[in-house]
Amino acid sequence: MKFILTTDTSCDAFKTDLDAVKVPWIPLTFTLEGQTYDDNFSSDNEYSDFYAKVKAGAMPTTSQINTFSHEEFFKKVLSENADLPIIHLTLSGGLSETVNAARIAAKNIADADPKAKVYIIDTLSATQGHRIVVDKGVEIRDSGLEAEEAVKKIEDCASKAMHFFMVDDLHHLKRGGRVSAVSATFGTLLNIKPVLTINHEGKLAVIKKAKGAKKAIAFFLEMIAEHKADPQNGAFYLVHANAQENRNLLVEQLKELYPSAPIKGGWVGPVIGAHTGGGMFGVAFEGKKRLTDK
Predict the structure, then answer these.
(1) What SS3 state is found at 264?
(2) At 149, which helix (H) or strand (E)?
(3) Does domain 161-286 fall into CATH 3.30.420.10?
(4) Gap between the Cα atoms of 50 and 28, Å rounded
(5) Are the C-beta atoms of 170 and 52 separated by less than 8 Å?
(6) Of 212, 222, 155, the residue nearest 147 (C-alpha)
(7) DSSP line for 105-140
(8) Is 89 helix (H, G, I), strand (E, B) or coil?
């Protein structure tokens, strides 16, 4: 390897899976029922227990990873890997200030030791969209590419990662200021669910309002047909927040339409799930280019 690939845990892979492919990770954190936890889940039970608490009325909150924590993490990785350069992947800067804290930490390390190289890449993504970029980074790392060239290729992948997902519980979006209280109430009564994307700036954007999960799935399929770079072979990364039934409906249709395309993905982790609530589900994939909707 010519560099070390690292990430924060917004990618929502099992942490044991990240360990298995030698990707050191720094945890995001969430606070639930007055106690703060690291996002270090590595089993279905941990995710389902989290959503059971949310369904019972718990209201989780989150905070960014600060500069000091990033510095300590980068120093540890550098010391354990013969000072190889680091390429670090972060949660979208359109959703969190975590990337800016990482950049300051990288600059502090370079100021202290000009030989220490830490490249920060804003994935412009979250959850399984972020995981697309991690998987591409592992592939590029294992090809033996030098760090500077790898950064360009990974950034190109990040610019094309596309996300489409339906949020079931509008009151969590209301709490985060994404929809008004009136919209949340009437949307819930009429079974109208917002379908969101993460745009070219890495920000959430409502792209459609669907009446129920089946209409949302139909829209996902339209977006796949229009925007996916390699529909028949490129992987689909499915994502869900304790919404296995809707996820399975989407799997059935994807297998019928794109039988040779791998289906990957997994849970929405507790940090993003704190803002979407349970029931969210959707799909991420490598597209032609990001949507520019504001």
Answers:
(1) strand
(2) helix 147-160
(3) no
(4) 15
(5) no
(6) 155
(7) HHHHHHHH-TT--EEEEE-S--HHHHHHHHHHHHHH
(8) strand
Distance CA 67, CA 71 (A): 6
Q: Just give the CATH number of 4-159.
A: 3.40.50.10170
Q: What gap in Å lies between CA 132 and CA 286, rounded to an integer?
A: 8
CB 132 within 8 A of CB 285: yes
Order the strands of the 86-90 sheet from edge to edge: 25-26, 4-8, 86-90, 118-122
Task: Residue 82: count other Cβ atoms within 10 Å of its Cβ.
Answer: 7
Is the alpha carbon torsion for 66, 35, 172, 169 positive or negative? positive
**Token pair in block for residue 5:** 């690939």
Structural domain spans, the chain: 4-159, 161-286
The pTM is what? 0.93
Classify strands 4-8 and 86-90 as parallel, antiparallel or unpaired.
parallel
C-beta neighbour count of 46 within 10 angstroms = 16
Q: What is the pLDDT along the chain (294 residues), one digit of tens a residue?
A: 999 999 999 999 999 999 999 999 999 999 999 999 999 999 999 999 999 999 898 889 998 999 999 999 999 999 999 889 999 999 999 999 999 999 999 999 999 999 999 999 999 999 999 999 999 999 999 999 999 999 999 999 999 999 999 988 766 565 555 444 434 333 444 467 788 899 999 988 888 888 889 999 999 999 999 999 998 999 999 999 999 999 999 999 999 999 999 999 999 999 999 888 889 999 999 999 888 764
